Structures are given as structure tokens and as C-alpha cells.
Amino acid sequence: MFFWFGYLIFRRVIADKGWRWPALARTLLANGLVVTAVLLPLLLRQLSATPLDREILQRMGLLVAHAGPISSEWGFLLAYILPLAAVLFIAWASYADYYELIYRFAPVFLMIAVELIILNLHLILGQFVQPYLFSVRIGNFFTRYLYFIPIIYFISHPPKRRFHHRNRLSQLVAAGYRAGVDFLLRWQQVAAFLGIVLIALVIVTSSLKYARHHHDHVAPAMQQTADRFQSLLASQSQPGLLASEDISLNPLLPALSPHATLLVSSFNNYLPEAEILDRLLLFGHIFNWDEDQFMAFMLPSPLYDTFYTDNDFTLSAEVLQNGFGYWLLHHRRQMAPAELASYQAMLSEQFAGYDVRAGAARYGLTAVQATSPINPQLPIQSTIPPHHPPLLSPPVGGMMGGSDTVIYQLTTP
After folding, report:
1. Global pTM?
2. Under 8 Å CB-to-CB from 310, ≥6 apart: which residues?
3. What is the pLDDT of residue 394?
């Protein structure tokens, strides 16, 4: 909306050749009514939100407070200063009309200005949407390439009238630039072919790199999880709530089978935060975690700082055991030191007094998969040994269900 209304004002002023306030007011009013009609369902939904709706919206952490100005993750120099300097240099070296630069490409510069304004609205409002949410998912993507629009335009449309620079150095720079542009335009087919080859080479080498990384670091763990997943599913004849010591297996259960899991995310599940935490407490007690293990699971970890930026990021056992519970419960929320200390004290208190048998009955836990003995307070009905468990149903995908885990069938109330 920032961009659209700014662009409307610009177009209205250009069309009217000046500030004609009645026409400008009519344009803004008409578009304001359209925007209001589009946003009206969202506003009505917000007004009729239940307490759980508000809790879910709050814990999503969309609104956060920041200190100081924010710019592109590329840095202010690379994202703004150098590209703008390149545009001005090409406009100067090609004797471009600066009025044409401003008039024709005002939407480009308006979009870049809107990006900076939105990223720094927290300076005025006190808090605003998470910067990564805007920069990665909403905006700050196309703006990285908008600078190329005027650059390509002035390179491919040299001005008919030549204006000469005054000093000798400027003349030499401009002459060298024009010679390079003339060469590029004359041999544009060759340049395009070389560019395609270079891009293809980068894509192929990057693909080989990621394929090797996947083969060496991801595939072995995926195969082990797949074997355990097949074994657990093959042992169950009816849908139920399952838990596996392999943390990465649990989120797959509701996605790839009719079974439910204890590990649910507060970011995309319509459940109270207290229930999600209770499920995590039960999960830790099932596998006899001590308080240190549970705290490592439930406290924020720096291992997740590169989750959205590192292409080689892998959900290894170390990553899952350190901070994955916090990510499920709080996602990317950042706590102040006092809030974090209070949160840690609350976790310690609830972990010490948790009743695992009552928790299992509360959620209807039906089976547990583990490599070591589980909590003895659980009502174990039978066990299926590792490697070759008896199959109660056809294995998924036609694979054998063998694994290195024991499956404990529980008595459900």
C-alpha cells in the first residue's frame, strides 16, 4: 500500500502537470475504498477473534521491537549505495537526460524508498513485523534487481544528442564507457552465449555441491529415519498417538500417516501454548531425559541462527536436541534476559513435578519407539523387539519394516 499510494500520487501529479488537490483526493479516495474492501474481512476476523486466536497471533511473533535502523541483509553499501552509484555513473557516462531518469524510473526508486521505510517503521511505532518476514517472504527481493532496469535501458538506448564533459578525465572515462557499450551491443550474441554458459556452470557446480552434501550428510540419517518410520507404522493396526526417540521422525507422523504426534508447532496449530508445552514435557519424560537434556531441548540455541540463510543447514541430531523444543513452542521469538530466566525457572518447576502416567492417559499415547528402555511409569502392554518385528499390516512402500529400535505398545484408557 505504501508503494501503491505513492505511485498514485506520482502519476496524478505527472498527468495533471502539477498538484491539483481535488483530482488527487478523488484518486486516493477511490483506491482507499478498494483497499478497505479488500481488508474488511481481515479486520472483521480480528474483531471477532477468540482469546486462543489472539494468543496464537501473539506467539507467532510477527510484531517485534528493534533498536536502531535496519536495511537489507546485504548491507547498506551493497544493497543501496553501490547500485545507485552504478546507475548514476552510467547515466553520466552515456550523457543521459537526468529528467528522463527521474521521470521514467521513479517507480523503481519509490519501491526502494518504500522498502527502507517499512524496514524502519519500528523507529516510529516502537515495534513492527520481523525484518526477516519482510525481507525474505514479502519484499526486499525484487528491489535487489530493480537497479538493473535503468542500467539496461540507458545501455540499450543511447541518447541521440551528445553532451560533452568539460575536463579531459571525464572525456576519457565517458569515451571508454561508450566503447565498451558499443562493443557489447555489437557482440551481444556472443556476450549472451558466454553469460548463459557462465550461469549454467554456476548452477551445475552448485547442484553437484549440494548433491554431494546431501549424499554425505543427509541421506544416511534420512535412511535410518525411514527404516524406523516403516517399522513403527507396520507395528500399528489402528491410528493412534505415537512417539519416537528419533526426534526427526515425529513430525512426519501426521503428515505421512493417519497417526498423531506429541511434537506440534505453535506456529501453525490451533492449540493453546500450555498444551503444546505439556506435550513437550511428556515427550521428555517418556525417554527418561534428565533436566539438563530437557533444558537444552527447550531453551533457545544459536544453532538455529542460520536456519533461513545457510543453504547447508541440516537438522542433525545435535540441532534437534538443542533448541528444537523452543522452536516448536516459540519459533523465532527473542526473549529479554529477565524473561528468559523466568521461562527457564518455569520449565524446571514443571519438569520436576510432571506426572508422566497422567500425561500419557490425557493424550491417549498408544505406542513408543525407542533404542533404550522408556519410563517405567508408562503402562506397557507388550514390546516388539528390534530388526524384524512382526508386521500387523503391510509395510508402506513395500519396504521391510526392520530397524534398530524397540516398539512399546501401551495400554490406553
Report:
1. 0.64
2. none
3. 40
